[in-house]
Write a structure and sequence with these properties.
The protein is mostly beta strands and 192 residues long. The protein contains one helix and eleven strands. It has a six-stranded antiparallel beta sheet with strand order 1-4-5-11-7-8, with no helix packed on it. Strands 2-3-6-10-9 form a five-stranded antiparallel beta sheet, with no helix packed on it.
């Protein structure tokens, strides 16, 4: 009865071939794994153009990265957050509850800042918040005004602001936080 060992050998070879597979043989089919589902790319808001934003000579060493400052504030009490030339004065009652107010200055050589508050639901002030920007080193400070970046319109929009010649600052009252810059404005055309 010789057929049994031959059959056992054939079965053993078939099992070994199945276990090892033919994946490494040159005749193996090309297997392309299914593509992983990809998340939709986030839609970025358009970055503000910086044409027209006042550039100033640094008064000290310039940090290579964005400068940032943040402070937790109680909306009922208010407070101030300062970073270089920029001061945000939050009056008592400006927003409800607790929040973190932050200032980011992407380039210290430009009079441009990004203001934020968290939680974001606090970004509609009950009482206006004051933004004050020092103008020392700026030629013709009396011609300066504050503008905010409107991401929907993709343009800088002028807001009511006033220059204090004694303190060399420009100030504006803000209803919300956004990106703000100092630019030369024509005060003869309805200026403030």
């Amino acid at each position: 009865m010789r057929p049994k060992p031959l059959r056992s050998l054939a079965v053993a070879l078939a099992v070994a071939a199945a276990a090892l597979g033919c994946g490494r043989l040159p005749t193996a089919p090309d297997v392309v794994p299914p593509a992983a589902p990809q998340a939709a790319a986030p839609v970025a808001e358009p970055a503000p153009t910086l044409a027209g934003v006042v550039t100033v000579a640094p008064s000290g060493p310039i940090a290579p990265d964005t400068l940032e400052a943040a402070a937790p504030l109680d909306g009922a009490l208010g407070g101030e957050v300062k970073l270089g030339r920029f001061t945000v004065a939050v009056p008592a009652g400006a927003f409800d509850g607790l929040g973190v107010v932050s200032i980011a200055v992407p380039d210290p050589a430009r009079l441009h800042c990004r203001l934020e508050i968290t939680p974001e639901s606090s970004n509609a002030f009950i009482v206006p918040v004051r933004l004050r920007i020092r103008l020392d080193g700026v030629a013709h400070p009396e011609r300066m005004g504050i503008l905010w970046w409107n991401p929907t319109m993709r343009e800088w929009e002028r807001i009511e602001s006033r220059v204090d010649r004694e303190t060399l600052t420009v100030e504006a009252e803000l209803e919300h936080f956004s990106e703000y810059s100092v630019q030369e404005v024509d005060r003869a055309k309805g200026g403030w």
